[in-house]
Amino acid sequence: MPLSWFTRLFRAKRRPARSPLRRGPRLEIEALERRELLTTTPLTVQSLPLPTLVQGVETANLSLATFHASTTTSGEPVALLASIAWGDGTTSTGTVSPTQGGGLILGSHRYDATGAFAVDVTVALGQTEASTTDDALVIAAPLSITGTTTPLTLIQGVATSGLLLGTFSAADPNASAADFSASIT
Question: What is the pLDDT of the chain when averaged over all its residues?
Answer without folding.
Answer: 75
